[in-house]
Specification:
The protein has one domain: Ferritin (Up-down Bundle). The longest helix is centred in the last third of the chain and has 31 residues. It contains five helices and no strands. The protein is elongated and about 55 Å long. By secondary structure, it is mostly helical. It binds hydroxy diiron-OXO moiety. Hydroxy diiron-OXO moiety binds next to helix 1, helix 2, helix 3 and helix 4.
Length: 167
């Protein structure tokens, strides 16, 4: 049976993963309607992955005797100033997600919930990859600078460039 505080922390994490998915979906729509088809494909896929992260947590909470809450979400932005702003905001968001995952892990140790601690290790590893990926993309964008031809190639190559993020 899940400790009430762990259930609360996991439900908070569920909200964050759902909000991530929602936000990346809005970014995908912007990219698709701004001519960045490669970036849009990447972001649609990323949004799906975040939904999977949310579902994995929900199933775990329910399996352990808690009740997963389907969270209300905040409406994401409709417009974005450009690709740099999008990936900068993804990096900042993922840093917040990492901090939140670390605090769940902390709580597990405090309350001696080693099962949830073990389950959360998947998320800890995933965050290392997600942050690294956002940094790698930002580095590429910095190289592109204002060069439109290079931006075209960036958009064409983003899926292979970033590698396929973990599902
Ligand atoms: Fe990108 O964060 Fe999920 O876990």
């Amino acid at each position: 049976m899940l400790h009430e505080q762990i259930a609360l922390a996991l439900n908070k994490q569920i909200t964050l993963e759902a909000q991530s998915s929602h936000t990346y979906l809005a970014m995908a729509v912007w990219a698709e309607t701004s001519g960045y088809d490669g970036t849009a494909a990447f972001l649609y896929e990323h949004a799906e992955e975040e939904r999977m992260h949310m579902l994995k947590l929900m199933r775990f909470v329910n399996e352990r005797g808690g009740v997963a809450i389907v969270p209300p979400l905040t409406a994401p932005a409709v417009g974005y100033p450009g690709l740099d702003a999008i990936f900068q905001s993804i990096l900042e968001h993922e840093t917040t997600v990492t901090a939140s995952i670390n605090s769940v892990v902390d709580e597990c140790l405090t309350l001696k919930d080693y099962t949830t601690h073990n389950f959360m290790q998947w998320y800890v590893a995933e965050q290392i990859e997600e942050e690294a990926m956002a940094r790698k993309i930002l580095d590429k964008l910095a190289l592109v600078g204002g060069d439109r031809g290079a931006l075209y190639l960036f958009d064409r190559d983003i899926l292979s460039l970033a590698g396929s993020p973990n599902a």
